[in-house]
């Protein structure tokens, strides 16, 4: 089974004061976490300040730009899944966010362990709270793309489809960081 990592890093990070793809080492670290956790390949979705962010994407990752990134996470997810659909070898994609600094390779490995092929649909939880990464098998890509609007990503699709919850609260908080850390 082949699983590609999909890192969403397109937002402007208004509350952060700059695009999160440009915060510290978050982008590079997130790509490395996906690879170390077991993703066969990684694609980064960029948007705000895409050309500047592209310069720091590690060579081991591909890039897709979501031209409509300002719409929200849904636009990034659609752009990423469209690119993944061009790859015949991916059975599933593991979607993560660039602003999850405490999510590490152990979390990725645990969620990937739930993979059963193209029908996979799983998400990490932290103390029962749903979060990222989210594992989406190829069988679900078209439905997720159709449901991904605004800043909701795959949330509505997951709400309407049975999926496995993979508890990772013993490994990380899974909290995204929206404001500069003082």
Summarize the structure.
The protein is of the alpha/beta class and 182 residues long. It has helices spanning 26-37, 50-54, 73-85, 105-112, 141-147, 155-159; strands at 3-9, 41-46, 61-65, 92-97, 121-126, 129-137, 164-167. Helix content is 27%, strand content 24%.
In the CATH scheme, what's the topology name? Spore Coat Polysaccharide Biosynthesis Protein SpsA, Chain A
Biggest sheet overview:
7 strands, mixed
Structural class: alpha/beta
- Report strand order across the widest sheet: 3-2-1-4-6-5-7
- Which bin fits the share of residues in helices? 25-40%
Low-confidence stretches: none
Radius of gyration from the CA trace?
15 Å
As a percent range, the share of strand residues is 15-25%
Order of helices and strands: EHEHEHEHEEHHE
Architecture per CATH nomenclature, i.e. the level-2 architecture: Alpha-Beta Complex
- Whole-Å distance between the termini? 42 Å
Q: Count of DSSP E strands?
A: 7
Would you tell me the overall average pLDDT?
A: 93
CATH class reads Alpha Beta
Can you walk me through this structure?
The chain is α/β, with parallel strands linked by helices. Helix content is 27%, strand content 24%. It is built from 6 helices and 7 strands. The chain has a 7-stranded mixed β-sheet with strand order 3-2-1-4-6-5-7, sandwiched between helices. β1, α1 (26-37) and β2 form a beta-alpha-beta unit. The longest helix is centred in the middle third of the chain and has 13 residues, at 73-85. It is globular. The protein starts with a strand and ends in a 15-residue tail after the last strand.
